[in-house]
Give the backbone structure.
Amino acid sequence: MIASSFIHWQELVPLADDALAHHDIAAVNLLTALELPGMAGIENERCRAVVDSWAQHVGNETDRSTAQFQREPRQFENSWAYFRVLVLATVLQQDCGVRYDPDLVDRADFFDNPENLFVHGVLAGKGGTCSSLPPLYVAVGRRLGYPLKLVQTNSHLFARWDDAETGERFNIECTSHGLNCHSDDYYRNWPRSTTATEIEHNGWLVSLTPREELGSFLANRGHCWLANERFREACDAYAHAHLLAPRQAGHAYCLYAALDQWDKRLEQAAPPGFPRLTVHLPRRRFPSVPRALEAAMVTLEVMEDLLENPVHCRDWWEPLRQSPNDRPAHMPAHITVHDPAAVRTVPTHLN
């Protein structure tokens, strides 16, 4: 495992699974939270140092109690893997103060605060959720060489011991007190009942690849931006999540919902008589996203740029708001954009 020295999470996106797997999952999780509301002052290196110290403590306690497993392996499912995870969960909960906080989930503003979604909230002792606890368990376990994965089910995230070499595999519920290892069938019905078709369609109950892990974190980034009504940033996060994890259809659903909210907000902000807008989709950034969704995303980006441009606000939009029947001079009735990026760089040159 190596440290993630990237300046921005976008530099992780092009990496293949093998390359991304070398990066600390806690660092990756924290990188995707950068720039979110409330993240100012969060020091990623300090957070990672806490994870390092917790992992060392878990390792020491495992070594200290190994004789107990050797004397009575039947008490631990005759599994050295199970015993190590039991120690991990016990030490994190009893010694490090890691805990699930159900009151966070019930809050109407749950997605507003990244502390509820990313590992730094747990590291600060503020309790965690199914969004933040499994990545932390996996981060600690991987530091000890454990083959831990993240697994998504309907509205829930958990961890899994998934050893390709030995074939040993069991689930780890990170929100419970103590250690509970539920079957896959349990998660087909909890926390929400789901069908086999939905599981297949959404890519649930399979161990996530490193790219899919990053996609899951970016989906949480999107949820937080959307809750804070930063629609452009939310859509960008969801689109990247789908790019990284195309078999998880939920990312596309989230993108569609965010685009719908963004469209309604811009329609409310546009003055009467706003020009008709045609935007030509440039080279695709998100080939896994349905083309119609990416086209809508680019169109809304252009519309927002036009509405926020100070020159157009002064010369077109404010006069229109004051006198809707008097079209300002030089304002086109139809704007065609061939290069969406140019709307920001050369905002007064429109066809």
In short: The first strand starts at residue 148 and ends at 153.
